[in-house]
Amino acid sequence: MTEAVTTDARALSTEPSALAELAATEAPRAPAFIVTIYGDVVEPRGGMLWMGTLIECCARHGLNESLVRTAVSRLVGAGRLEGVRIGRRSFYRLSEPARAEFREAARLLFAPPPEPEDWMLCLSDALRDVDLPLPWARLAPTVALAPNREDIAPVAGVLMRAKQLEGHGDLGELASERWGLPGVAEAYARFLARHGAVRDLLSGSEPLSPEDALALRLRLVHDYRNAALSDPRLPRAACPQDWPADDARRLFVEAYVGLSKRAETHVGASFLSPDGHLAASNEETERRLFQLRREAAA
């Protein structure tokens, strides 16, 4: 059997539900969505996936075979994917740099660090000549500020902890300008609008097919990851009162947990690696779900 597959480029569904909401949205960018598939489904199960499975999975999201093959070729050229040919079939896995990057993203999705309460301040003449890594923001040529979180690497210079004195200056205005908070809020708002109907689908009487559940979960992860990675996760006092991050997080946790049992059934039945079908679940996928269920119960 060759690796060629037949796909029908059909929409997710025409039913009045979260599937219809998703079908009406623009198709995701193929390279980024392929990385989402690997990070959510493939990487925690061993890391290798048949090209035919990838084509079938992407077809559910409006990405045809030509787009997928082109995207995979570009990802290989960029050092993001690595290919292995076994017989007449091609299998791909994330490269080590891409795996490391997605491990950081997975931490944000499944075990986010606590919300910061104060700031790190860096003073250094060397700051004049460096590009600051996010979420560090330059306040002056020799002064930089970042939320004080355990996952943020310090920059070289004199480091101090800082906390705003109430009633002195508009911290929200500064944060909005330096960290582009309106754009982040818009990304969260799009996520909420696009995926809010999943709650109704999960509580409805009509059973959701495993294939549809996986399609919804993949887009849930893809869109939430894009929004959350743009969020500098500042101390709450720096964010607007109607900041949508908490609502988006609750929706992500609730929907991911609700979709996963059926979604993973489809993974175990249809996703092929060099050793056969990927496991429906394993220790790593169960760990992710445990973390989310614990968060939901807190």
For the biggest sheet, the summary is: 4 strands, antiparallel
Q: Percent of residues in beta strands?
A: 5-15%
Low-confidence parts, pLDDT < 50 over ≥5 residues? Answer: 4-16
How many beta-strand segments?
9
CA radius of gyration is: 21 Å
Mean pLDDT figure: 89
Fraction in helix: 40-55%
Please write the string of helix (H) and strand (E) elements.
HHEHHEEHEEEEHHHHHEEH
Give the distance, in angstroms, between the N- and C-terminal Cα atoms: 50 Å
Class by helix and strand content?
alpha+beta
Which overall shape is indicated by the principal axes computed on the Cα atoms? globular
The number of helical elements comes to 11
Strand order of the largest sheet: 5-6-4-7
Describe the protein.
The protein is of the alpha+beta class and 298 residues long. The protein has a domain at 119-162. Helix content is 50%, strand content 12%. It has helices at 18-23, 30-42, 51-59, 65-77, 96-110, 171-179, 181-195, 198-203, 210-230, 245-270, 283-297; strands at 49-50, 81-86, 89-94, 119-123, 137-140, 143-147, 158-162, 272-273, 276-277. The strands form three sheets. A four-stranded antiparallel β-sheet has the order 5-6-4-7, with no helix packed on it. A three-stranded antiparallel β-sheet has the order 1-3-2. It has a two-stranded antiparallel ribbon with strand order 8-9. A hairpin with a 2-residue loop joins β2 (81-86) and β3 (89-94). The radius of gyration is 21 Å and the shape is globular.
